Amino acid sequence: MSLVLRPARPEDAALVFSFVRELAEYERLLHEVAATQADIAAALFGDHPRAFCDIAEWDGEPAGFALWFYNFSSFAGRHGIYLEDLFVRPAFRGRGIATALMRHLARRCLDEDLGRFEWSVLNWNEPAIRVYRALGAEPKSEWTLQSVSGEALRKLAGS
Fold first, then answer.
1. Which of 26, 70, 82, 132 is catalytic?
2. Of 6, 15, 22, 67, which is most buried with the most CB atoms under 10 A?
3. What percent of the residues of the chain are helix, what percent strand, and what percent coil, each to the nearest 5?
């Protein structure tokens, strides 16, 4: 059995969108997916991509993905990576694919002299939390994620 990690290519837009929907279904958030395949294609493969994706293939079969972007720490004065989505299809779990994707991004951080590698996890997702703890991740309990979207975003913008 062999694992290959590779950057997503424009012809992978449908696959990436499928992974996004599968992840949302797993997280019980499918009702929140407003993105389309065209949105994903534009974000990842447009003229000025601001998001990036790596595909994991197991024996040539699409097994999972990591979708990420660069963030910035003014305190550190350096960029980092924020992992937006990590997903491995159920049939491929338990083979170290998620760990391989995480290690791949950690190596990118070191190779590019980035200051940190961050992500969020749902509080109930114990299998993922166990993987993250085994990799040395620690929760940042002193921070609470805040978000403004939809009507609240329009209101904040004064529209």
1. 132
2. 67
3. 40, 25, 35
